[in-house]
Structure formats: structure tokens, C-alpha cells
């Protein structure tokens, strides 16, 4: 069991340790996570701190508390494309697959819409950096995506304001420029008709259904690092879910 360090809140250190066990597969869907009492004893922390660590994992969608039973690892739904993008960037330094390329259509400071401001924790100052791109391959548009960054990130990462592609990938550049590392992500997905602008950019018929993925990346201290909204045409939908049959 790792020792508690003073450089980071205790509950986050416990939560990150358990999160890593879940993502590595040491704790699998359906496995019971240590109780508040056990965590408090193992880590030599208070029960409220242990409870806060489990609550953080719950907010990340990694565990669920069952009344009168305990806390268990949830079945994880992973968007394959998002996972492949980050994995490829960290392994090869290239964000796109062979044959794919992105065109940055706009970049700069804008007033964030309500759902973006909520995700980034913007209250009074709603200005944020917006970066919009269309990804293509030989068959046409693959996805339309818009990334948003809070002022504290935009001020330290000036390349976000340029129309040139960021070769190492946006998130890796932001991590390098700010010194903040992405810790985990929260995804929300829905299907809806394409807007007129989306239909034009993705070469779709008016009102054709699209898949929308909202992707929020948080750092090691649970602070929003990037909020991205990606729109996929029907033939680009891709999911992967792994779970035990017993």
C-alpha cells in the first residue's frame, strides 16, 4: 500500500490508487472495493476521508454503492475512437491514424455556451478558448469536434489560438504547456438530428442522425483540463464494451 504524501489531498491519492487498479483490470467489473473502514485502516486516514475517496470514484463513473451491501466496480463503456486517439498519441506521438488528417476551421477566444461553462467551472468570466476541427480520411469527413479550454489553460498554451495543427495532439500539448496531467475523463453520449452546420461540414443530408460525444478531461486534482464535443456521422459510430458473462 503506498504511503500518503503531503503534496496532494489524501482522498485523491486513495481515489487515484483505486482508479488505477480498476483501469488496469486488477479490480474488474462486479468486484467489491474496500469499505470505508478498511480504507481508513489500510491508509491510516479518517473515515470521512475514505468516504470522500469512494465518492470521487463514484463521480468518475467507476464504482457504484449498493445499499446495505458495499461499493462495487461498474461495467465500463468505452468510446473506442477516443481511447485509440489518446493511446496512439502517447505511444507514437501521432494523434491520427494513417490516411487521416484534420483541418482546424477556427481557433480563438469566445463566450462559452451554458453547458461548456458548466463543464469548465466558469462562473463570472465566460470567455474560453475554442478550437474547432474537421477530421477527414480518403472517404470523407470522419468527425467534427470542438475543444474548449478555461482561461487559465488558454493563457499558458498559446498554440491553442493558432490554426496550425498541434502535431503531438492537443491534450499532450496542453499537459506540457501547463504542467497539469490528465487523470481521467467523463464521457456523455446522445444521438440527435444534425444541425444545418453539422450536416454541411459532415456532408450529410438535412436532419440525418449523428452521434454526439461530450468528453471532459480532468487533471490529477479534479480540475477541468479540456471539454470536447465531437459529432460523428452514422457510418462512423464505434463502441467497445468488455464485461464478464458470469
What secondary-structure arrangement, pairings included, does this model have?
Layout: H1 10-24, E1 32-33, H2 36-43, H3 47-59, E2 63-66, E3 70-73, E4 77-78, H4 80-92, E5 101-111, H5 114-120, E6 127-137, E7 140-149, H6 151-154, H7 170-178, E8 182-193, H8 196-201, E9 209-219, E10 224-232, E11 240-241
Antiparallel strand pairs: 1-3, 2-3, 4-11, 5-6, 6-7, 7-10, 8-9, 9-10
Helix pairs in contact: 1-3, 2-3
Number of alpha- plus pi-helical segments = 8
Sequence stretches where pLDDT stays below 50 over 5 or more residues: 77-81
Strand content: 25-35%
Helix fraction, binned, reads 25-40%
Decide which structural class fits the backbone: alpha+beta
Order of helices and strands: HEHHEEEHEHEEHHEHEEE
- Structural domains: how many: 2
Name the overall outline: globular
Report the radius of gyration as a whole number of Å: 20 Å
Average the pLDDT over all residues and give the rounded result.
83
**Main sheet record:** 6 strands, antiparallel
